[in-house]
Amino acid sequence: MRTAFEAVSMGEAFVTLDSLKILFEDMDLQPTPSDEQLEELMLTCGKQSSDEYVSFELFARAVALLIEVNADKLTTSSQNEGHGHH
Questions:
Q1: Could you tell me the domains of the chain?
Q2: Which residues of 28-58 are buried (b: 16+ CB within 10 A; e: fewer)?
C-alpha cells in the first residue's frame, strides 16, 4: 500500500484527490468512488474540507474504510435483494 501511494505521490508526503482515485483503481478497490463519494469518504476519515491534499495516513484510513464498506455490502447484499436503494 505504501509503495502504491509513493508511486502516485512522486516522493511527496501527500497526494491529490485525483491521484487518490487512480490509486483506488490501481488497487482494484471496487466500486471506485465518485468525486462526491471520495470527498465524503475523506471527510469521514478526518480530512479538512479546505485541504487539497491527502496524507498517507488519511489514504490508509480511506482504504480500510472502503474495504470494510465493501465487505459489509458483500455480506448484506444477499439479504437486501428486492429492497429499494436510496
A1: 2-77 (1.10.238.10)
A2: ebeeebeeeebeebbeebebeeeeeebbbeb
Tell me the whole-structure pTM to 2 decimals.
0.76
Q: pLDDT tens-digit profile of 38-75?
A: 889 999 999 998 888 999 999 999 999 988 888 887 77
Q: Would you list the DSSP string of 54-78?
A: EEHHHHHHHHHHHHHHHHHHHHHHT
Distance CA 2, CA 16 (A): 15
Write the pLDDT tens digit of every residue in 60-69: 999 999 888 8
- Grid coordinates of 26: 490501481
